[in-house]
Fold this sequence. Notes:
Blueprint: H1 3-25, H2 47-63, H3 65-74, H4 76-84, H5 100-129, H6 135-141, H7 144-171, H8 184-201, H9 204-213, H10 219-224, H11 226-240, H12 247-269
Helix pairs in contact: 2-5, 3-5, 4-5, 5-7, 5-8, 7-8, 9-12, 11-12
Amino acid sequence: MDPNVQVQSGPTSAVGRSGRRARLRLPFRKRPEAPPAAPVDASSMSVGAHLIELRNRFFISIFSLVPGTAIGFLLSDRIIEILKAPLPTKDPLIALGLTEPFMIHLQVAVTVGVILAMPVILYQFWRYISPGLTPSERAAARPWVPAAMAFFAVGVGVAYFILPYASGFLYGFQTKDIKLMLTADAYFGFITLLFLAFGVVMEFPIVLVLLSKVGIVTSARLSSSRRMAILGIVIFSAFVTPGADLVSPIVMAVVMYGLYEVSIVMIRMGGR
């Protein structure tokens, strides 16, 4: 064997082994990161896509009523007792049909379900409209989404507070020739509409503030429109409140006008 060959082959094999060891010590190369997904532009969605999105949000909102309705049905006896307490009489309410007691329990349960599911409903509404807003409009409107739930709860509380006065006013028109025999269906239909009406009306300042954020109304414009606003509030309160009592529409009109003035102050503090 040629000695020159041995001299040359020794270093070559060492270099090869060291080269393999060096390559093994190299760190693993990172895979290139995938580019972030492009945000969905609401303006580029087709009408069909908007309808599908609306349908999905609607069904989620409907299904969110199920847990609260189940809770309300389990507690319906106690809730009916609490709701009947403001009446100025201890006489039991009258049911005229065989299925009416069950329907009253179901009506109370669904009302409780709507109240408890309101955060989910408002969130689904926000998710549907937010893609159509600009980033600044979304940032301005986002804090008011949880506040809407608090305002709705306050409205229900106001309705329960005025219930004894409204029912006492109506009971006062009985005479020896006119005896009120209140049915359960009529009474719980009255208070359900009353609670929902006051709960929705309490969202009034949130709507005005959000309209100011997108530049539709200003505090100066609302201040100059007070007379028209008062007229509209009185007409709206007379039509929305159930029953024929004077207490409910008067209280609603006063509350709405107070919220109108509060909205003007809030919009002015926001620089609009």
